[in-house]
# Entry
Amino acid sequence: MSDKQRHLIRELVSSHGCTYAQEAGIRLKNTPQPLYRTLVLAHLLSARIRASTAVAAARALSDAGMRDPRGMAEATWQQRVDALGRGGYRRYDERTATQLGEAAELLTERWGGDLRRMREEADGDVSRLRGLLQEVTGIGPAGADIFLREVQSVWPEAAPYIDAKALDGARRLGLPDEPDRLVEQARPAEPAELAAALVRAALDKKLVDEVLARAG
# Structure
């Protein structure tokens, strides 16, 4: 990797390495509530909607008390719709409100509302964990990837999790699409910060142009 590419990676992470969980006000720890809130965020981000809208909707759900599966399940469907609407998440609000309720019930019944139990069931097998995540209502391959990208700092068996969307960002920046090399050059930044920055590059051509210009 050239010196220019190394500088580019550092510029990218320093400018855009805030994770989506951080943006949503989630202090990510290996405890049930922040893990659940991150899963809800991943669900919202996986729809064809602006990331900023998904983040705002995740904050609105949390502010309305839907921070864990019990709170989500006990909320009425209309309360979920209203919270999503306050976050600007209107295009998919009715379907998503239904999915969030069903997902909360499934998580409670199968894993006691604690995603750490899902992690234990996967027993260190990240492919198995990705599959289990997709058994949750509303979580597809994209949602599972988003969740694992975000939680890799607290679930280190998933790291480095630089998925296809993040690698799209690397290619747009003219960087090698090799996760290990990218992570190595981004240090001391965490892989989750690198992944978030690369995803933003994949989604925003203007961001790519700005970073390339600043990196010279």
